[in-house]
Input
Amino acid sequence: MRVPGSYAVAVRNPKGEIQTRYHDFTSLVERSRWMKPPIVRGVVHLFEALKLGIATLNWSAEVAYPEETAGKGSASSVVTTIFAFGLALLLFFIAPLWITTRLIQLEQQALGFNLVSGAIRIAFFLLYLGLISLVKDVKRLFQYHGAEHKTVYAFETGQPLTIESTHDFPTQHPRCGTSFIFIVLIAAILAFALIDTVVMAFAGRISLGLRLMVHLPLIPVVAGIGYEALKITAKYQHLALFRWMSLPGIWLQYITTKRPDDDQVSVALESLKVAFGDQLSEVEGQQYVADAIA
Output
């Protein structure tokens, strides 16, 4: 759980005890005015979230599965991370572009090409989520994801931070990272269509190699655009238009979040309490509309 000025991780060890770790943390966006402009702040937040996510997952694995992780150093984690990112680029980025180029004759049509490749990318993403959701450990991970959202809902609506107070809240949240990914997939279609139009205006034509050279470095920029879109839709959930716009991401969370049990909710609650530390009594019981991605 990340809160202003800090974050905390809570993990249940093999003995059934909850272990926690607290860290002071202030985003670079808050420390530098150069990081505050729209889109730029989204890119910064994305890289910070990835860095924190990898670090906390590694520590969580060490606590939850000490025997399996014993003897595995940082080098192993680096190799695993690089492999995961490489596989994601291949499956969700390079493969859709290659399929659209080789099998569908739309290479020189900027909008048509990106509509088709974007649809393939989304189809791959949905298929991937559906398949991994069948894995027992992943299903349990998705339950913890649901516990996180229920806890955030309880806190933001001013409810006491107890297991009972989370029961009536859904597992789907408008600021979820899953919604963010889906928005990025949609934003990529429009952004890359515009970029391809500009490239073809200067180069006369475009190829698969040129597309990869141009698109790959701009992935963080597209993610920054998606971040801004998510902030807007989450902030204006009281308006019907923005609730409608956030629906695809909410529907997607029926895959990536599952109803947790009380033991899982207790871990999420402990993480939030530790993150706030001594400030908990000052913030609990109030209503909030936060900007961070849940």
Q: What stands out?
A: DSSP finds 13 helices and three strands in the chain. Residues 2-65+74-283 form one domain.
